[in-house]
Amino acid sequence: MKKKVDEVIKICKMLNIVWLFFLVSFQTLQETDLWQTLMTVKYRYVNDVYIPTFNPQIQAFHNKEVVIKGYIYPLEEAPQHSFFMLSYYPASSCFFCGAAGPETVIEVNAIKPVKYSLKPIKLKGILKLNADDPQRLFYILNKAEQIP
Fold first, then answer.
1. Residue 138: inside a domain
2. What is this structure's pTM?
């Protein structure tokens, strides 16, 4: 009987390792796939305004908690920021330099200030899709928190 119990424990431990590997792999895949999905948005440029049309894959993320990795684009000079943009691309390829489109940046509203870095950071927050306010970006990450 003890031998069977030991075997069951061993199998359970192996399953936990497999499950943990799956969760870590899925999280990494989700971060990468989120940008790839967000960048499939179609938009028109009419009267100096970008007008997005979100496909069903993008709409699935509306008002959902997401994790995303990107580069900070500060909106003011400061060591820390609560309101900033996050970009898929580093500053050398930014949307505002003409090297990328509006689908590659997200407006971020952080719960606590995030320290500026030239390296990519990872954030968790609630993603809002914005098709109505042309003064804001297509994507808004609310209640954002920096995570390791």
1. yes
2. 0.77
Quickly list DSSP for the chain.
Answer: -HHHHHHHHHHHHHHHHHHHHHHHHHHHHHHHHHHHHHTT-EEEEETTEEEEE--HHHHTTTTEEEEEEEEEEESSS-SEEEEEEEESS-GGG-GGGTSS-GGGEEEEEEEEEEE--SS-EEEEEEEEE-SS-TTS-SEEEEEEEEE-
Residue 114 covered by a domain? yes
pLDDT tens for 56-110 read: 999 999 999 999 999 999 999 999 999 999 999 998 776 666 678 899 999 999 9
Structural domain count of the chain: 1
Q: Which domain holds residue 123?
A: 33-147
Scanning the structure block, which residue is given the tokens 């580093």? 90
Q: Compute how many other C-beta atoms are within 10 angstroms of the C-beta atom of residue 136.
A: 11
